[in-house]
Specification:
Length: 254
């Protein structure tokens, strides 16, 4: 009887090991997180999280731009358009300010496109030498994709892109389809397009040159949290970020 019991237990253990050693589909080709914030396979790697972050950028029409106020002596001279606007008080020099803004993912490099208006505080600070960070979250978009509110916003991804603004020449923006890309995401931006004499405001096409990326995929026990590699960030292809899904997304959506 004892030998039979031992034999039976060993058989059950062998079956258990066989079942649990079944290969898992590559996590980069499936949704990495389920809607309740738990991992479907394992905690995503840094690179898998980078691909997810690139998808978050691609699906984000808005973000929060953060810049730092310069000393009054470094502020660019007001143009005739913005001379009626009050200058920032000297006491805010060195203080960061965060403001929501439009953006679009119009280049394959992972550098977001921004239409920088000359009257905007973020633009003035950047032109005065401030570095720029752009914060994106999946908090606001989750409900529209999932059809319900998340059980916890803290379980959803967010990312911060750190770098500086670089002007895109108007000829380049037109040649490379940046104008069409941006206005498809933001049709109302046609009212202030650079190069349009009838535009409501003066402005310029800018790209945020991403130098560093900080990612919070959700809760740390099921998601990667930490710095991403900037080289990997730029190397992610459109096909890669199209083949992953953020929480709440339909698996059939590209």
């Amino acid at each position: 009887m004892h030998l039979l019991a031992v034999s039976t237990i060993l058989s059950i253990c062998a079956i258990f090991v066989t079942v649990n050693s079944t290969p898992v589909s590559p996590i980069s080709q499936t949704a990495l997180l389920s809607d309740d914030g738990t991992a479907e396979a394992s905690i995503p790697t840094r690179y898998q999280s980078t691909v997810l972050a690139r998808r978050l950028l691609a699906l984000s029409p808005f973000g929060v731009l953060s810049t730092v106020f310069p000393s009054p002596s470094k502020l660019p001279s007001d143009s005739s358009e913005s001379s009626f606007l009050s200058s920032p008080p000297a006491s805010v020099a060195g203080t960061p300010i965060s403001l929501p803004d439009y953006l679009a993912d119009c280049e394959s490099s992972g550098n977001p496109t921004i239409l920088a208006l000359s009257v905007a505080t973020s633009t003035k600070n950047a032109l005065a030498g401030s570095n720029v960070s752009l914060s994106l979250t999946w908090w606001d978009q989750y409900a529209s994709y999932a059809g319900r509110q998340p059980w916890s916003e803290a379980s959803l991804p967010r990312v911060s892109l750190l770098g500086y603004l670089e002007e895109i020449p108007l000829s380049e923006a037109r040649k490379n389809g940046i104008v069409e890309c941006y206005t498809e995401v933001h049709p109302d931006s046609r009212l202030w397009l650079p190069g349009d004499r009838k535009a409501a405001h003066q402005g310029a096409w800018m790209r945020l040159i991403v130098q560093e990326v900080y990612w919070i995929g959700g809760f740390g026990d099921v998601a990667y949290i930490g710095w991403l590699d900037s080289i990997e960030w730029k190397a992610v292809t459109k096909k890669e970020w199209q083949n992953v899904r953020l929480p709440g997304e339909n698996i059939d959506k590209q």
